[in-house]
């Protein structure tokens, strides 16, 4: 009985999908006779079926692991690090079979939403665009919240040698408020509250970008849905475009024209 092509993948595509080379380079390897399937020589157009063993120069080719994007409701006390010396590190806590790392961080005494992944590209993209995306927190403090507190928190607080960006702050009850940030300074919310003589007694992150905690209980995690990832990737694409436009504007404004003016002034003086 012949195998169906519906359950197979073109050999050159299979090789490139492992991340070792491009499809074009994979074709060269096939043409040069360096690739075998189940010990037999291959040619362009061969297909790889589930269970087939592909080798290059006699070395088995391992399929790239599935890309994972995980949302965890981090408990208090878990540290957002991959350092194995830290007994309560986040990777040990999840104990996943794949090697994961957190995107950004959430302080040890804080709880709530954090992403983990094995995709290094998206980590860099999210961290690079981090100041353009919303993160929402529910915060409880040690004394009643005043209107003055809300106003000052939302309009900017001087910490760490800068003024925090304007943000949305909303009173939830006597001692609790909701805050939406688009920046991530070290222990930002705790420092902002401390500046106003308030102490944070509980801090929970409830949303990152388009993903909310929802019904996810403390200590539980789930994979992000394809719909959630689609929106995240769109947000990141928009951020990249904005970044490129701002860089181009900067170059046009402060490089070429100024150089021309500078040189023309010099010529006039001569």
TrEMBL record:
Residues 239-270 are annotated as: Disordered. Residues 9-71 form the RNA-binding S4 domain. Residues 252-270 have a biased composition (Basic residues). PROSITE patterns: PSI_RSU, S4. One of its GO terms (molecular function) is 23S rRNA pseudouridine(2604) synthase activity. The keyword Isomerase applies. The keyword Isomerase applies. Keywords: Isomerase, RNA-binding. Residues 240-251 have a biased composition (Basic and acidic residues). InterPro entries: PsdUridine_s_RsuA/RluB/E/F_cat, PsdUridine_synth_cat_dom_sf, PsdUridine_synth_RsuA/RluA, PsdUridine_synth_RsuA/RluB/E/F, PsdUridine_synth_RsuA/RluB_CS, RsuA_PseudoU_synthase, S4_RNA-bd, S4_RNA-bd_sf. Its EC number is 5.4.99.-. Signal peptide: none annotated. Belongs to the pseudouridine synthase RsuA family. This is Pseudouridine synthase. The gene is rluF.
